[in-house]
Amino acid sequence: MLHDRFLMTESKKPLTILLASPRGFCAGVDRAIQIVERAIKRYGRPVYVRHEIVHNRFVVQNLEAKGAIFVDELDEVPDDRPVVFSAHGVPKAVTAEAARRDLLYIDATCPLVSKVHREAERHSDQRRTVILIGHAGHPEVIGTIGQLPPGAVLLVEDVKQAEAIDVADPLNLAYATQTTLSVDDTSDIVAALKARFPQIHGPHKEDICYATTNRQEVVKKVAPMVEAMVVVGSPNSSNTQRLKEVAERAGCPRAALVQRAAEIDWSIFGSIASLGVTAGASAPEVLVEEIIGAFAERYAVSVETITTADENMFFPLPRVLRETAAAE
Predict the structure, then answer these.
(1) d(CA 31, CA 314)
(2) How many C-alpha atoms does 139 have within 13 Å on its Cβ side?
(3) What is the edge-to-edge ordering of all strands in the sheet holding 83-85?
(4) Which residues form the catalytic set?
(5) What are the structural domains, with CATH classification, of the chain?
(6) I want to staple 113 with a disulfide (CB 3.0 to 4.6 A). Which of 20, 89, 242, 322 is the partner?
């Protein structure tokens, strides 16, 4: 336990670490990583993965060591090797190309992202234009837009764009959202859309995933209680970036996004007596322990866990890999 590992010593300045819970891996990330590992066991090395399976370099490097090869596009995948699609989802054109080439492909798209895809298709079937709230260029956004024909999805990134967007038929609109957005920012954008288009259709259940919401909620609680906050995760991870923003908005004077202990800028922290620590949904717990260990080398650390929700979500593996899991 972290509490037992880092004991107080008189020679160091005391530092109370408030450890956010929930933090780190969500069910969708855990499932995606397992899919790559099981595929390697079942089909042998190498197994190709289109795009980073999740946005964390440590995770990617570990999978590379086990036999995964990460590529940007399908044309980098040989005809005789399996390919895994990342947790962020892919456009339909990618799946169609894999089928055309008769590739063995395994879809690791998070089920909650797949839910957004199905909602977008349902709205399109009912002849509604879909306004997608998200970040341009993010793989999840590219995948969601790619579920529908060109022009069927319009992207909105902020309130200003929501207030200015031009639509052909204001009475036949729906909105969907990227699953890893700021809950508060998204709420403001949705409010702006509803103010302009009162008849706009929304999802049956909010698109922002349970893990994103839970991690932001506990950061909102911890941030005002500490002098600084460390968010463990990768800078290209949307949900991780949002945690840093949430911490700053919730009143934390200093918030830093850190991938590994070696990256810590100690000048930011100085003589603090309290620190919050959390991790994005694609950051493994071993990195959280590494960060706390680095602080324990400089401070007399005591760790307290702040919990705002219990998570027990589970997503089953694709059928093709369940036999491998059962055999272990």
Answers:
(1) 8
(2) 22
(3) 68-71, 47-50, 83-85, 105-107
(4) 140
(5) 2-25+210-307 (3.40.1010.20), 27-110 (3.40.50.11270), 112-196 (3.40.1010.20)
(6) 89
